[in-house]
Amino acid sequence: MIFALATDENTLLVFTSVTDAMVYCEGIDVEDGGWSFWDHVGRALDAEFHIPNHRDGFTVGSGSYRLVPAADKATLGDSLTSIGQIGDNPHFPTLSAVGGTPCKRRSGVPAWGLTNHSSRTRFAGRLNSGVRQLMDDSWTSQLIGQTVNAIEQWEGGTCAITLTGGYNIQIESLWRLLISGTLKRTSQDEGQIFGLNEPVHAVSELSGTLLGHTLIAVQVAQGTADLTLHFGVLILQAVADSSGYEAWQVVGPSGMVAVGQGGGNVVVYG
């Protein structure tokens, strides 16, 4: 859940997912101060752009951003008294109702480590017409032949995989690495000892294993939206571990965004 304040109307909007919020809130407006954000427990968020907005005097275009913690900004609780109204939503009938604590992810970590691509037209109360149910594998075919350039863990726990061609895969859920069909490592191993001399550094091991390898096949499981990435004998799986939160997101250079939603659904933007 993400809270977004439309500063020009002084209206608080409530979005079920960070993806919905960032599709609705265009990058141009965000950069111009048109939106303020808070996560599901009311902590302030900042928009961090990794693809700048485009302005050339005749045309403008929204870039891409992700939401990151902003410890220097006021919490939602401290800001409520200055907010004029709340938009229609199924969660909070009034502004005063927002004073309670919204739902948390099972790990207690907000799912704000996602990327936005918002160069689409907004429609009040629903996602834009570019959002569709996954009907084919056109987006997965774009990933085939791309090579792993970098793997890092963002603040908040997201495992971000950068591929050649401008593609990025962000795993919010449990991931596991298989080698020749045998389980080698999972994200839940992070910090464990397992009789070793030092704790497991799961993402570092994942990076050391996959860096430089080429993706040869992509599979999405029906019913669960589990994502499986094949690098020859190396296989990386993003396993959905929530019925309500996104498990993974794939972002492409042309504006394509594929999201593995809670409940086993997959939607594609652009």
Structure description:
- There is one protein chain.
- The chain is mainly β and 270 residues long.
- It folds into 2 domains: 2-99, no CATH class; 131-269, no CATH class.
- It has helices at residues 18-24, 27-31, 76-79, 138-141, 202-210, and strands spanning 2-6, 11-15, 35-38, 44-51, 54-55, 60-61, 64-69, 85-86, 131-133, 148-153, 159-163, 168-171, 174-179, 182-186, 217-220, 227-231, 234-239, 248-251, 257-260, 266-269.
- Strands 9-20-19-18-12-11-10 form a 7-stranded antiparallel sheet, with helices on one face. Strands 7-4-3-1-2-8 form a 6-stranded mixed sheet. The protein has a 5-stranded antiparallel sheet with strand order 14-13-17-16-15, covered by helices on one side.
- Strand 19 (257-260) and strand 20 (266-269) form a beta hairpin.
- It is globular.
- It starts with a strand and ends with a strand.
